[in-house]
Specification:
Rossmann fold; three-stranded antiparallel sheet; alpha/beta; nine-stranded mixed sheet; about 35% helix
Length: about 375
């Protein structure tokens, strides 16, 4: 269900410092109005963020059903194809592949040849889908974004910058921060979505899995992302953090995956896992966490939880930096809030595609990892 669509009609940005100040004032006014309208749909009581986003819950402490997560150590185009094909049954019609295409020359994004091979074999008519960024950089405006796509080699298939022509509002069922989320208007053009995610750390979220790829990546660059990141009128663009940020991001994700229903699936690539997001491009922190493999599932919580469990199952030397990033940002609240919202299961059957489809544990997947070597 689409609640509202609109084309953006911000004034043309004048040149010079006064012009930039004018644009920021106008944008702040618009965001405050939209944010206020959104929040008035909530109860009068101010929501309270959850707790314990810095505390890991071990598998034996979890309850509920189990979902299926597939795993291969084969970090290649062939491994990506194999993982995707396990979870592709309901992907049909006009397909959007939600992928982080990265800042210019970003070193850690999923290799373009792998994505091309997957799309050539299984997703021949699909489109890569993206949105513009909230921060000013190489993907802040659509022309800048198009240039960056060209630099990074995303030229082998169509790429839709979904907020190029405006926004749409999707309902957030059961949310406490939002009743609707602003996404790129073109999102509603698609029948199915494949979340193809580079799993890594994240400066704000602690870690970036499928939840971050969708929750931030489908929210439009001016309104939706502002609702998630910024207290209206605050000079600090990143004023919302820790548990509240995780919850807002997760509600954004819920709006999108509810829109697609069963026609959405998830693939997480655990490779080149810096503690930094791909948004940081060449400024990303050096990778010190070992490469692991590729996971796939039709359950967003199960796949992100499995990735986290594998990280926690590594040796202290292997996971030290990643755990520090996840826990200091209270990023584990992403997982507990997805469970509270009924978005999936945090228990799962992990299927080893390399060994006849036997069931393994996260600790098995983390065994005998090789130290990361930059390629």
């Amino acid at each position: 269900m689409i609640l509202f669509t609109a084309k953006r009609s911000l004034p043309t940005r004048p040149q010079g410092k006064r012009g930039k100040r004018f644009s920021r004032i106008i944008l702040t006014i618009i965001l405050c109005i939209l944010f206020s309208a959104n929040m008035t749909a909530q109860t009068n009581k101010q929501p309270t963020p959850g707790k314990d986003g810095n505390k890991y819950v071990s598998y034996d402490q979890r309850t509920g059903n189990e979902s299926v997560v597939y795993f291969t150590r084969n970090l290649s185009a062939e491994g990506l194809i194999q993982a995707y094909e396990q979870v592709s049954a309901h992907i049909e019609g006009n397909i959007g592949v939600k992928l982080h295409t990265g800042e210019q020359n970003g070193p850690n994004i999923i290799p373009r040849p792998w994505v091309k091979a997957l799309m050539d074999k299984d997703l021949q008519s699909a489109t890569i889908i993206e949105t513009n960024t909230y921060y000013e950089g190489d993907r802040y405006t659509t022309p800048q974004h198009r240039k960056t796509l060209e630099v990074n080699g995303w030229t082998f298939c169509p790429v839709d910058i979904m907020d190029e022509e405006g926004t749409a509002l999707l309902p957030v069922v059961g949310g406490k921060w939002f009743k609707e989320m602003s996404v790129g208007s073109h999102l509603t053009h698609y029948d199915s979505m494949v979340a193809l995610t580079h799993f890594k750390g994240h400066t704000m979220g602690g870690f970036g899995g499928s939840n971050k790829n969708i929750g931030i990546g489908c929210a439009d660059g001016r309104i939706g992302k502002a609702w998630i990141h910024t207290i209206p009128g605050d000079d600090n663009q990143w004023s919302i953090a820790e548990e509240e940020f995780m919850e807002r991001m997760t509600e954004s994700t819920k709006a999108t995956i509810d829109h697609f229903g069963k026609h959405v699936t998830y693939v997480n690539v655990m490779r080149n896992m810096s503690v930094s997001c791909d948004c940081e491009g060449l400024a990303a922190e050096p990778v010190v966490t070992p490469d692991v493999g590729i996971l796939s599932s039709t359950d967003i919580l199960a796949i992100d939880q499995a990735c986290i469990d594998i990280i926690y199952a590594m040796t202290a030397d292997e996971h030290h930096d990643m755990l520090e990033r996840i826990e200091t940002r209270h990023g584990l609240r992403q997982l507990s809030y997805m469970k509270e919202l009924g978005m999936g299961n945090d228990r799962y059957v992990l299927i080893d595609l390399d060994n006849g489809g036997c069931r393994i544990t996260a600790a098995d997947a983390a065994k005998d990892l090789k130290p990361f070597v930059s390629k």
